[in-house]
């Protein structure tokens, strides 16, 4: 198989971790006789610096022409505390998601047997956790109309959802549940929000076509609690954009490090794979960022194209690095291994 | 001192737990020679059943005429899965908050030395946690315009904030920080939301009047992670309505049981005190609900009126019940003590 893969390193530690994922894909090319054509493009703060926009046309064009996008990270603190900034790095990612129609963000949350001690949660609470979050990615308050009055004293954001937006991701989530533990939990705030009530109505109706899947509901405040109290209760969590953002970052504490968590963003015609961690600007250039989330994003990419054995080889190599302790300092205090060495080790074991 | 206290038991376990708080206040009356005049009124699902509205006029009138409101709990599952319900219990609480102008919800989060084992988090992570969340309570997406199109295929909620709404709670939060560990963390999503950027701008400006308080910022997704990874880093967290709802329920896992957490909702002229837990309908009438959150709400009420010694007596009695294991089953498996017995024990020890 030949796959055209757009590489978008982005900001902060993005380039460093993405380079490790590429190493691993190159190892897959050799071992499994596949062919990947990589092309790189700018996105985020670095694109603003060089081209004046966080998502240059050439970048978007490249992504559209590619079979998949491998994304690094986005964001730069110099924009965060400037409420008057006209452009922001994050707009690049949001616009990219929208333009590519990546409506479903899929985030697996697993406890790693070798890392049970790293989590702030007790072993007995997290052991055996295995759920996946389906987060709607191109609707809701992230993309609704934003307003600021002229005096700069009043601001608003609109959270809007249509039946069609809810239904397409709901089908994906139910299908996933069908192939897993057959349980789907909708997270919403239907006791307060109109948009949440629409979610509940549409998802309930769609659920009738998946009688083998048990559907239940949790208010988002309760969900934020349950994910910590008893993460094993979950199989597939379906939720809207902002709630998904919050609870999936929260869920990352289960695995012991956010540096382990990959995600896939899926649309009708495109797909993008990225770590769930941010650009971690403090670590930039220090060769300490954990490359595993980026490497596992590459594995999710392979799975997406049916390259199951290849994805498996990456995951096994990652497990080996965890078991042998060939990991970055976030996973082992005073670890001698840097981003590059961990990437090399994993790539060599594919 | 004579205080007129409106009692709003509400739904589910609300009446049971509120009755224990009243017992404790009666004990305070005797021991400290204070006088509380209690009057009860309907709110929530029970008010819908009896009066057709979740907040009857007589209830609102009583609350306005009282010095403070002691609230039980609200919500009934029969409304949750009915997207077409015209009235909902929760509207009663939201409307009450709005009508009484209760713009600041204050939720302390503490680790209890005697309950460290009950938390799903590791002891070493939570030991010594002591922060307080200032949640804006009468603005944002809870109260913004809600729309549903005629076909019922599109729904929206508006998240709106004005400078004035942000500034009044920000001042309260900065003052609280000044009297504590002098650190204030604003939780927002300023990299995406216009309303969050207004929060950041206004809070930054107000912070200049509190130079002794260190101000920092966290995106809400990161905050959801940090509260679990390292809860001791926080002192005062300030945030908007919905984010506060989510992260304060999440924070409840630190204390070992949501049944322990009280909250105060403060306005210019009124104040309401309630547990942060919900109506827990499965437990209704079983004498198993933990009354401590409700009892500690009564303690917060006393503190609000400067009755510090009285509040202290309640808290000490609560500590005693925790130390002696005179607690409900949520805190001790197979505990023989019910809601009433725990309430009696605490009241007798005041
Ligand atoms: C960078 C930011 C816009 C983004 C989001 O909130 O969607 C990130 O936090 C994520 O979760 O992918
Ligand atoms: C009952 C509900 C409307 C309420 C809220 O979300 O504000 C509750 O969850 C709370 O946190 O007090």
TrEMBL record, chains A, B:
Cofactor binding annotation: Binds 1 Mg(2+) or Mn(2+) ion per subunit.
Keywords, comma-separated and alphabetical: Amino-acid biosynthesis, Branched-chain amino acid biosynthesis, Cytoplasm, Leucine biosynthesis, Magnesium, Manganese, Metal-binding, NAD, Oxidoreductase
Positions that bind substrate: 97, 107, 135, 221
Predominant location: cytoplasm
Binding site for Mg(2+): 221, 245, 249
InterPro entries per record: IsoCit/isopropylmalate_DH_CS, IsoPropMal-DH-like_dom, Isopropylmalate_DH
Reactions listed under catalytic activity: (2R,3S)-3-isopropylmalate + NAD(+) = 4-methyl-2-oxopentanoate + CO2 + NADH
Signal peptide: none
Transmembrane segments: none
Sites marked Important for catalysis: 142, 189
Location in the cell: Cytoplasm
Pathway(s) where this gene product acts: Amino-acid biosynthesis; L-leucine biosynthesis; L-leucine from 3-methyl-2-oxobutanoate: step 3/4
SUPFAM superfamilies tied to this protein: Isocitrate/Isopropylmalate dehydrogenase-like
Cofactors, names only: Mn(2+); Mg(2+)
Domain Isopropylmalate dehydrogenase-like: 4-346
UniProt GO MF annotations: 3-isopropylmalate dehydrogenase activity
Record-listed E.C. numbers: 1.1.1.85
PANTHER family named among the record's database cross-references: 3-ISOPROPYLMALATE DEHYDROGENASE
Subunit structure: Homodimer.
Function: Catalyzes the oxidation of 3-carboxy-2-hydroxy-4-methylpentanoate (3-isopropylmalate) to 3-carboxy-4-methyl-2-oxopentanoate. The product decarboxylates to 4-methyl-2 oxopentanoate.
Family: Belongs to the isocitrate and isopropylmalate dehydrogenases family. LeuB type 1 subfamily.
Name the UniProt record assigns to this protein: 3-isopropylmalate dehydrogenase
Gene: leuB
């Amino acid at each position: 198989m030949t796959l055209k893969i757009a590489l978008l390193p982005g900001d902060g530690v993005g380039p460093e971790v993405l380079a490790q994922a590429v190493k691993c894909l190159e190892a897959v090319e050799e071992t499994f006789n596949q062919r990947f054509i990589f092309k790189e493009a700018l996105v985020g703060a670095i694109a603003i610096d060089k081209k004046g926009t966080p998502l240059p046309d050439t970048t978007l064009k490249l992504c559209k022409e590619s079979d998949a996008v491998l994304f690094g990270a986005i964001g730069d603190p110099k924009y965060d505390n400037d409420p008057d900034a006209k452009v922001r790095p994050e707009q690049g990612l949001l616009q990219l998601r929208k333009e590519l129609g990546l409506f479903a963000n899929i985030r697996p949350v697993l406890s790693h047997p070798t890392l049970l001690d790293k989590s702030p949660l007790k072993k007995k609470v997290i052991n055996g956790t295995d759920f996946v979050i389906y987060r709607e990615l191109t609707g809701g308050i992230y993309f609704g109309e934003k307003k600021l009055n002229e005096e700069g004293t009043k601001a608003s954001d609109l959270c809007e959802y249509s039946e069609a937006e809810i239904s397409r991701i709901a089908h994906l989530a139910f299908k996933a549940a069908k192939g897993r533990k057959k349980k789907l939990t909708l997270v919403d705030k239907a006791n307060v929000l109109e948009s949440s009530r629409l979610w509940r109505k549409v998802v309930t109706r769609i659920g009738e076509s998946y009688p083998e899947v048990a559907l239940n509901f949790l208010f988002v405040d309760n969900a934020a609690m349950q994910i910590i109290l008893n993460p094993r209760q979950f199989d597939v969590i379906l939720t809207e954009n902002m709630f998904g953002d919050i609870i999936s970052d929260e869920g990352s504490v289960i695995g012991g490090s956010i540096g382990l968590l990959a995600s896939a963003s899926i649309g009708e015609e495109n797909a993008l794979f990225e770590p769930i961690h941010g650009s971690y600007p403090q670590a930039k250039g220090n060769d300490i960022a954990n490359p595993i989330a980026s490497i596992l994003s590459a594995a999710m990419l392979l799975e997406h194209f049916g390259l199951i054995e290849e994805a498996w080889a990456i995951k096994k190599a990652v497990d080996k690095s965890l078991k042998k302790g060939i990991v970055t300092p976030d996973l082992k205090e005073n670890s001698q291994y840097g981003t590059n060495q961990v990437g090399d080790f994993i790539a060599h074991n594919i």
